[in-house]
Write the structure tokens for this entry.
Amino acid sequence: MTLTKENLDLTIASLNALPDQIADILSYGDKLDLPEDYKNIDKVVVSGMGGSNLGARILSSIMSSELVCPIIINSDYTVPGFVNEKTLFVLSSYSGSTEETLISYQAAKAKNAKCLVITADGENNKLMALAQENNLPSLAFKVTYNPSNQPRLAVGYSAFALATVLDKLGVIKINQADLKAACDKLRLWGGKLAQADAFDNEAKNIARGLMGKQIVLVGGEFLAGNIHALRNQINENAKQFASYLILPDLNHHAMEGLVKPDNNKENVIFFFFDSVLYSDRVQLRSKLTKQVVAQNNISFVDISLTGVNKLEQSLEVLQLGAWMTFYLALLNEVNPLEIPFVDWFKNELK
């Protein structure tokens, strides 16, 4: 996994472009033509794998209290039994070649679901070909602001491509003023995180503390989708194993598992995302959970998010976490763009 200057430049360019990805994809809204009957839905099912479902997870967590119908992630070849003619079935694949997503279409079609495609515009895109053959509405975005061409570094596109579709259908309402303010802050925060030599670079300092550890991410409520996405990015970008636990559910099982094996205290580190926007009970649970972790002599780091609303804090975690995985990749001396085992696995499946 050779680490080259080109790899670094491409990764940095994609990390810097998060607010540009969001602004760019929102411009597709006026051009998006959806059948009128697509508004007659009672659930949204997103068929996507890996990086192609991260945006949906983040969006559904941020908007959970405002959704008029559920958003369900379907990471499989098959589709749930409840898929029917009132289901918006979103086929999401950045590359357009994800076999699980392509195969799931036939099952969704058989159930008369309202199918729609979200993908990156490019050559040899099987999902776009499927959309054209079956006359499916689609949002195919150009990846101008993701020079790395890695789906996990294009979450700004994937999250707000889905948001654009759902806003058009009345499932959610995009607050343009809040989103602009959040993007302005991303540009400000991103400028600081990109300064690799800065003493107070929060992402780099966090990465130093996580090096050589098995990372357990902890968050709750509207950040649940974020910590799933960050888990993926740590695994792929930094080539370091990470998992996550959700508050309050973790308090009903995971704490007892800290006791063994004995080397947990050397190998494991917890990473808490703290928010004043959590409910009071979850804030208390986070505080007490840290005490349990400390009682088991396991180290933890925590950060207090500064965004003024759920959208800002979610994007803050997305940006900070992505930069942290970049610096962790540098410390681990690995290429953040190459994914040799995933590529090998896909080739073996052919």
Remarks:
- The longest strand covers residues 87-93.
